[in-house]
Amino acid sequence: MWPDAKPIPELSNVDPHALPDATLHGGQPVVLRGVVSDWPIVRAARTSAKTAVDYLKQFDRRESPPVVATVGPPEIGGRFFYNDDLSGFNFRQEQVPLGVALDTLLKYESDAAPPAIYVASTTIDTWLPGFRNENDLGLRDRDPLASIWIGNRTRIAAHQDVPDNLACVVAGRRRVTLFPPDQLSNLYIGPLDYTPAGQAISLVDFAAPDEARFPRFAEARRHALTAELEPGDAVLIPSMWWHHMEGLETFNVLVNYWWRQTPAWMDTPMNALMLAMMTVRDLPADQRAIWEDVFRHYVFQPGDDTAGHIPEPARRVLAPLDETRARNLRARLLQRLNR
C-alpha cells in the first residue's frame, strides 16, 4: 500500500496441525506462508471462483438461516464506510441465502464496476456444517470461534478486536495493514457506539489519506506493517492490533479463528470503557485524578497493598475472580444500572 511500510515478519513450513504456542501467544503479528495450502477449499479456489463456490455449496444447508450480505454501490470503490456527515452508512444490508450471495458474486465477477458485496463474519459451524472436517487448523484447547468472510474487492477500515485472530486466505488475495495498539490517537477513530460493523474504525481513507484533516496519520504510517497474502497464507493478528483488510480480487474468501487468552466468563473490556465514560470521564479534573489513582490501585497495578490487609475469606471482589464471583458481580452491576 505504501512504499515505506515495513513487512510483517514471516514464518514458513509451519505444521498446520501443531501451531507453536510461542507464535500464537507471542503478542506480535506474523504471516504464516502456505500454512493452509493443502486445504481442499484452497485447491478449489486456485482452479477458479466457480470451483470454489461449488465446493462451498456442498456444505450449504437449505434449512440454514440467511446470511447478512453487506452491499454498496460501485462508486464507493469497495470501501464500506459512513456517509458524508457520519449520520449513516454508504451501504445497505440484506438477508439472503448463502447460495444466493455466492451466485451473485459469480454474476459480477467479470463486471468492470460491480457493486461491493461482503458476507462478513459468518459462523462456519452454523452455515457450513462439515466444512471444518476438511479445512481446519490445529489450535488444540483454544476452542476458537471459526468464521468465514466472502466478498469481492472490498476495503474494511482499520479496527481492533479483543480476541487474537488467525486469518487464513483461502480464495483470492488480501492486503493486510497492521498498526500497534499504541497508534490509537494517530488513527483518528470514529464513534465508539455507532459503527459500520460493531467495532470503532479509523476515519482515514488509506487509499487517499487527507493529510490536512488527519495530520497525525503520518506518524501512524511510520509504524505500519503490511503483507499481501496468497491463497494458503495466514496472518496472526494479536489482540487489539489495528488491522485494515483489503480484498484484491473479484472473489475473495477468508477463514478466521478468534480466541481469547482469558476465561470465557470475563466480559469484554469495552464494557468497562463505556461505563467509565458514563461515570468518570466528565467528572471535575480534580475528582478525575482521584479516580485515576483508584483505578491504578485496584485495576492496573494491584499488589500486596491492595488487599493483603484483608483476611482471604473476606476479600470477595478483591480476591482473584472466578466464574461464580464474576456472575455475582455482574448481577450486582445489572441491578445498579437498572435502578
TrEMBL record:
SMART domains: JmjC (SM00558). InterPro entries: Cupin_8 (IPR041667), JmjC_dom (IPR003347). It comes from the Bacteria. SUPFAM superfamilies: Clavaminate synthase-like (SSF51197). Pfam families: Cupin_8 (PF13621). Residues 117-274 form the JmjC domain. Gene3D superfamilies: Cupin (2.60.120.650). PANTHER family: HYPOXIA-INDUCIBLE FACTOR 1 ALPHA INHIBITOR-RELATED, HYPOXIA-INDUCIBLE FACTOR 1-ALPHA INHIBITOR. It comes from Noviluteimonas gilva. This is Cupin-like domain-containing protein.
